[in-house]
């Protein structure tokens, strides 16, 4: 029998409370993304993501997320009532992405990368872990 008491539990959900989820375990690859999809969905210069193993993620209700496929192999989830963006998953991937803004306890998650950095405004400073060494 394994001791699950040492696994960190992350909970989250949408703004209106119709959707809740739980992710257990070590967060993977926290990063910002400034691709055209993320900037349009977020209404900002980036969206912040963190990964969790698919097997450690559960929708806990009470509602069911809406699904949108911007590509045939990628599914994005949001709340059908309040439109909060919650996460995304690629087909066949071991990890799925959760929007850090949807986490109840995501304030301590620090991004370590920035995808599509070239698409961000010049006023947005790079996160320290992605700066080039001089």
Description:
The protein has 134 residues and is mostly beta strands. Helices cover 5% and strands 38% of the residues. The strands form two sheets. The chain has a seven-stranded mixed β-sheet with strand order 6-7-8-9-4-3-10. A three-stranded antiparallel β-sheet has the order 1-2-5, with no helix packed on it. The N and C termini lie far apart (50 Å).
How are the strands ordered across the major sheet? 6-7-8-9-4-3-10
How far do the termini sit from each other? 50 Å
Helix count equals 1
Gyration radius over CA? 15 Å
The percent range for helix content is under 10%
- Dominant shape: globular
Question: Which regions contain 5 or more consecutive residues with pLDDT less than 50?
Answer: none
Indicate the proportion of strand residues: 35-45%
Task: Tell how many strands the DSSP assignment holds.
Answer: 10
Short account of what is shown:
With 134 residues, this protein is mainly beta. It is built from one helix and ten strands; from the N terminus they run E-E-E-H-E-E-E-E-E-E-E. The N and C termini lie far apart (50 Å).
Essential attributes:
single chain; 134 residues; mainly beta; seven-stranded mixed sheet; three-stranded antiparallel sheet; 1 helix; 38% strand; globular
């Amino acid at each position: 029998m394994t001791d699950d008491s040492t696994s960190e539990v992350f909970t989250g959900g949408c703004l209106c409370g119709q959707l809740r989820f739980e992710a257990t375990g070590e967060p993977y690859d926290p990063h910002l993304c400034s691709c055209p999809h993320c900037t349009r969905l977020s209404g900002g210069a980036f969206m912040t993501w963190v990964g969790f193993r698919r097997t450690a993620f559960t929708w806990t209700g009470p509602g069911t997320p809406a699904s949108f496929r911007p590509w045939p192999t990628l599914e994005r989830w949001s709340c059908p009532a309040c439109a909060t963006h919650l996460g995304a998953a690629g087909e066949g991937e071991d990890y799925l992405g959760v929007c850090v803004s949807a986490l109840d306890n995501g304030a301590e998650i620090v991004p370590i990368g920035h995808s599509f950095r070239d698409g961000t405004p010049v006023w947005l400073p790079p996160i320290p872990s992605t700066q080039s060494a001089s």
